Amino acid sequence: NSPVCENTDLNLTATFISGTVSYSWTGPNGYTTTTQNPTLTGVTQVNAGQYIVSATVNGCASLKDTVVVVVNNAPDTPVTSSNVVYCEDETAVALTATGSNLRWYTAATGGIPLTSPPIPNTTVPGTTTYWVTQTSNVTLCESPRKAINVIVLAKPLPPTVSAIIYYCQNETATALTATGTNLKWYTSATGGVGSTTAPVPTTTTAGNTTYYVTQTVNTCESPREAVSVIIYETVEALAPSAIPIIEICDTTADGDDTNGYVNFNLTLQESLLLNGKNASDFTFAYYEDAARTI
Length: 294
Description:
By secondary structure, this protein is an all-beta fold.
């Protein structure tokens, strides 16, 4: 089957002769065999040259025949990166290499070439190896296979945060904090551009605002962790002139009209104290003195 490509098999054949026959092959690099149709595996240039075969039939030697074997050099492997690194769940693109008539494989030997360059799966952390060859346009010889390792790094866990942070309206806020590496802050659960500067919540308006933070380890960014900032509405204090003076006479409602006190329900004054706010949004606490003795 000459010419043959380097690193492929060379098949030598001799015509079948009936009777008691023995065959003898000799060739380059001291090659000898008595097999009728020998095969040399993984041939190189040392196997190129003249092969001579003869047969002995019923004790009589035949004329010798020769065949000249040409071994074409295999092209070099394609040029490509040995390692391609992705983060878990990152969008992957088809592998690339520089060469002629590329062929992609999923095994180091054997197998059938893929119909197109593979697109790595990044859903599972780990390493997957692919192989690629190129084929000469002149000799049609295929190069050795070049390995490409696709390494998928696991996502880090989200940073540690306080899930809910409370402020009163118009209270001075401080920058949000989280425990992690290379933190990035976002204002939405997906998309957007992260900032390395932690946000300082605005407390001028009551309500709930959610921020998100990630950490990055080995170039891989974690899922986003939510931080909710709740701003409670603050009641505007009444002006001293608007606070009513409540005068009540001691009565027998508590069984004695001379003891100097009378039972009184302050909750009847809550609508006035709230200055127009909804009472269901607040919790009241009443004190007997400025030291807040309940």
